[in-house]
Specification:
The complex is a heterodimer. Chain A contains seven helices and nine strands, in the order αβββαβαβαααβαβββ. A six-stranded mixed β-sheet of chain A has the order 5-6-7-3-8-9, with helices on both faces. In chain A, helix 4 runs parallel beside helix 6, helix 5 crosses helix 6 and helix 6 runs parallel beside helix 7. In chain B, helix 1 packs across helix 6 and helix 2 runs parallel beside helix 6. By secondary structure, chain B is an all-alpha fold. Chain B has one domain. Helices cover about 85% and strands about 0% of the residues of chain B. The chains are: A alpha/beta, B mainly alpha. At the A-B interface, helix 3 and helix 4 of A face helix 1 and helix 5 of B.
């Protein structure tokens, strides 16, 4: 590749953070978004908005590397999240599904996820994470005995285990949570942004974070505001 | 510890939480194989002759029983997404899943097989050969089964499709597995059959996890 193409110039000036360039994607053969370019710098939170079916989840899956983009590229610190295993290690993706096994206890399910992702899996660390999400007293119950909101809290306890300024890709993290749960997640988001982490997330509930600017991306217009 | 072992440990633990589900393949294996003496008749000559084939066909079918849930459960609850995004080689993780499947279905079949051999009136040497052929062959069934499960993930009628995809692929295993015992019974050395089985095992160990990982990436 020659260094004079605009793509290369754009590539080099955004080595850190998340950068999507001319991204197109969708489900099956249906294109949901095209020619979408945006950035999430370290210490930034980008709130992805759009009506139902506008492709928010698909965009998050494409950014995380679960779906292949139809065109364009996604780079995290200059690396592709789909191919680069090392780049994947700084990613936390939380989709609609919680990723918890129903037949494990809450703490076992969380331990497996943190072992899988190479995070702190010590009993102390897991207990502290569960405590900060307010589900410590439920830690030995099987996941299938937990309510929808409690399961979400256990899944979100992964965020409390994070210490590095990585990339969080969160699909409706506030869903199924009560007011107290939402406040906890807001403070986790705040802490992550303040340690120069990046967040790309969707939410139907308004996002107001103290001291943290929230940028919005409206998917129907594909313009960053 | 590598996540390979964490995943293996988790799958074995999950199976221990549902012991009835875990024992289903072995129960099917014993039950199906013991129907043959009742249907064919009690002549020792006939039973000894059909024993290797019957045991192998029943092993093949019972290994297929738990395939629909091999990746289905992880797909439904989002664990599979997390595995593919974990920053570890998906090939190694599918290998862990296949090994867990073998430990939970293949190994029990191997342990019960001598019992069925006695039931069919087989001698000690053919029973040993049967166990060795199962030891070499059942891991291949788990590997190809995992591939079928990964390809049919999220499809309706996935369970039936797995059978249609995997059974033809497993025919060589059946032929050489049952053939080894039959060769021994008719006084020929089964070494050639065992070598071919071992070669099949090595080939599928090298190739099938790669294909399974690719199929998972498409299905998820």
């Amino acid at each position: 590749m020659s260094a004079s193409t605009p793509l290369d110039i754009a590539d080099t000036d955004a080595i850190t953070g998340l950068r999507a360039h001319a991204l197109a994607g969708g489900r099956g053969h249906e294109t949901l978004f095209r020619n979408l370019s945006f950035r999430v710098l370290p210490g930034e939170l980008l709130w992805l908005r759009g009506h139902n079916g506008s492709g928010k989840t698909t965009l998050l899956r494409t950014v995380a590397g679960l779906s292949t983009p139809f065109a364009g590229s996604v780079r995290w610190n200059g690396q592709s999240l789909r191919g680069d295993l090392l780049a994947q290690k700084s990613l936390v993706y939380l989709g609609h599904h919680n990723g918890l096994k129903e037949d494990l206890s809450a703490v076992q399910a969380l331990r497996f996820l943190s072992q899988l992702h190479g995070r702190d899996a010590s009993a102390n660390g897991l207990h502290a994470a569960l405590r900060s999400l307010g589900v410590y007293h439920r830690r030995n119950l099987l996941v299938r005995m937990l309510s929808q909101g409690q399961r979400r809290r256990v899944a979100l306890a992964r965020l409390a285990l994070e210490t590095q300024p990585g990339l969080w890709v969160l699909d409706e993290p506030l869903e199924a949570l009560d007011d107290g749960g939402q406040a906890i997640v807001r403070s986790l988001l705040q802490a992550h942004v303040q340690r120069a982490g990046s967040v790309l997330m969707t939410s139907h509930i308004a996002l107001q974070l103290d001291g943290v600017p929230v940028r919005e991306l409206h998917l129907s217009t594909t313009g960053v505001s | 510890m590598h996540p390979f072992f964490h995943l293996l440990q988790r799958d074995v633990r999950l199976a221990s939480r549902r012991p009835l589900d875990a024992l289903l393949p072995v129960a099917f294996f014993v039950l199906a194989a013991s129907l043959f003496p009742l249907g064919v008749g009690p002549e020792p000559q006939t039973l000894q002759q059909i024993a290797p084939g019957v045991v192998w066909v029943c092993a093949l079918l019972s290994a297929m029983l738990s395939l629909a849930t091999l990746y289905g459960g992880d797909y439904a609850d989002g664990s599979l997404e997390q595995m593919l995004l974990s920053g570890h080689s998906a090939v190694l993780l599918t290998l862990a899943k296949a090994l867990a499947h073998w430990l939970l279905t293949g190994l029990p079949l191997l342990l019960v097989a001598p019992l069925l051999g006695v039931l069919f009136g087989m001698d000690a040497d053919p029973i040993k050969a049967l166990c060795l052929s199962l030891l070499l062959g059942t891991p291949i069934l788990s590997l190809f089964g995992g591939l079928g499960a990964a390809i049919t993930l999220g499809l309706r009628n996935g369970a039936v499709l797995i059978l249609l995809l995997v059974l033809p692929l497993c025919m060589p295993v059946l032929i050489f597995g049952a053939g080894a015992v039959a060769a021994l019974q008719s006084g020929i050395s089964p070494a050639g059959h065992f070598s071919l089985l071992a070669a099949l095992l090595l080939l599928s160990l090298l190739g099938v996890p790669v294909a399974t990982a690719a199929a998972l990436r498409i299905s998820v």
